[in-house]
Amino acid sequence: MRYDSIELRHIRYFLALAEELNFGRAAAKCHVSQPPFSVAIQQLESYLEAPLVRRNSRQVDLTPAGRAFREKAARLLAQASDAYDVAQSIAQGRQGVLRIGFHGSMVFRGLDRLMRRLAEQEPMLKIELREMSSQNQVDALISGQIDLGFGHSALVPSQLSFLTLFDEPLVACLPPDHLAATQRSLSLRQLEREPFILFQRVGSPAYFDRIITLCLDAGFTPNVNYQVSQWLTVVSMVAKRMGVAIVPQCLSTAGIDARFIALESKTASSPVQCMWLEAHDKPAVQAVLKHVQQCIYPPVFTPDSTSHP
């Protein structure tokens, strides 16, 4: 089949000639000299076994076959260009599907900003968000169920690469009428006799262990009455006067009627991390990482004591 010999340059040269209707101008437009340009047009006609242009000393016109071929050829060249763009976009991580795991508290750390930025800057990249605990994200990354994760864990398995975005302070979360609710800051020891509400260890062992350790360092073992699986549940239970909690400061912007008081402990903080499996080498991960540090950060914390004297 002779059309197997047709190259994209033949198509490009012909479309330039169809537009200019002049061999010299068309050759210049294609950045080649006129002799090889003319040879390419002759080759194309030979492969198609049909004349595409009429030539004489005064003008160049398209034949009926040339006019019909022009429409199809333009579409073919556009499809080739699209195929090139798609391949480049995927190779650069700018197109495809990226599965992101996130802890619910990321909603208050700028996850919305990141999604808007990606929609604007990477419109051909489809993002699938999956809410899951930090530990479940680690498992899902290793098993290939997600490509990127946002969690908080001081110990990241060796199979994963990670970027620590910031070290977020932990704050006391108290019922609105608690005796310490008007303080600017408090010592953990003040909560020694309070019932504690904790994020369950199976979902986030790092947070659970961190809070227990902080209490032990303050000289007491917390009275853990409840363990739940969502941070908003923790804060909501505190608002309903079911106990107290130690939570990431970003939850102070959740709009729930609880009081958030700074802790005097200088070590009451927890790292927020972006994690991925380096072995997957997915270009889209690197494309998203460029935007993560510009979008993910905690809100400015204003202790409740300033607005609730």
Give the arrangement of secondary structure elements.
Blueprint: H1 8-20, H2 23-29, H3 34-48, E1 53-55, E2 60-62, H4 64-91, E3 96-102, H5 111-121, E4 125-131, H6 134-143, E5 148-151, E6 161-174, E7 185-186, E8 195-199, H7 205-217, E9 223-228, H8 231-239, E10 245-248, E11 259-263, E12 269-276, H9 283-295, H10 304-307
Parallel strand pairs: 3-4, 3-5, 7-11, 8-9
Antiparallel strand pairs: 1-2, 5-12, 6-10, 6-11, 6-12
Helix pairs in contact: 1-2, 1-3, 1-4, 5-9
Describe this entry's structure for a reader.
The chain is of the alpha/beta class and 309 residues long. Helix content is 40%, strand content 22%. It is built from 10 helices and 12 strands. The protein has helices at residues 8-20, 23-29, 34-48, 64-91, 111-121, 134-143, 205-217, 231-239, 283-295, 304-307, and strands at residues 53-55, 60-62, 96-102, 125-131, 148-151, 161-174, 185-186, 195-199, 223-228, 245-248, 259-263, 269-276. α5 links the parallel β3 and β4.
